[in-house]
């Protein structure tokens, strides 16, 4: 985590992969590995890893939210909205972040997004 905070994504990536080779279900390392791929703009890899995280922790609303963000970055509005709705159903309620997160910029103009946030 220190390497990631220092911006050394390649070394952080290596360390998370090493940790997962020892303990493949280490959910924190899985999530951080996905974040590294997000930072590196490797969205498909990040999505795949977040989905693996969800398999291990199906109620982790933040993972669903992060997948929504990755699909938004890829300009896949339908998938982004779908995953955002799943995140909210799982309990994600950081409405200020949902309204301001630059990762969700691509979906803000959609009627589905507007419907989701209208009461918040």
Descriptive notes:
By secondary structure, the chain is mainly alpha-helical. It contains eight helices and no strands. Helix 2 (9-22) packs antiparallel against helix 3. It is globular.
Q: What would the principal axes of the Cα set say about the shape?
A: globular
Q: Using the CA coordinates, give the radius of gyration.
A: 15 Å
Distance between the termini: 33 Å
Average pLDDT taken over every residue: 93
Number of helices: 8
Helices and strands, in N-to-C order? Answer: HHHHHHHH
Low-pLDDT regions: none
Helix content: over 70%
Q: Which strand-content bin applies to the residues?
A: under 5%
How is the biggest beta sheet arranged?
none
Q: Report the structural category.
A: mainly alpha
- Strand segment tally: 0
Which features characterize this protein?
8 helices; 70% helix; mainly alpha; single chain
In short:
With 120 residues, this protein is mainly alpha-helical.
Task: Give the secondary structure arrangement, pairings included.
Layout: H1 2-5, H2 9-22, H3 27-39, H4 43-56, H5 61-73, H6 77-89, H7 95-100, H8 111-117
Helix pairs in contact: 2-3, 3-4, 4-5, 5-6
């Amino acid at each position: 985590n220190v390497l990631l905070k220092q911006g050394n994504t390649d070394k952080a990536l290596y360390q998370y992969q090493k940790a997962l080779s020892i303990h493949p279900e280490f959910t924190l390392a899985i999530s951080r590995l996905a974040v590294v791929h997000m930072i590196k703009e490797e969205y498909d890899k990040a999505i795949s890893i977040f989905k693996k995280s969800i398999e291990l922790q199906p109620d982790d609303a933040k993972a669903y939210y992060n997948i929504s963000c990755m699909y938004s970055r890829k300009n896949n509005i339908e998938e982004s909205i779908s995953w955002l709705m799943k995140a909210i159903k799982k309990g994600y309620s950081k409405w200020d972040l949902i309204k301001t997160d630059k990762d969700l910029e691509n979906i803000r103009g959609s009627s589905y997004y507007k419907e989701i946030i209208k009461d918040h």
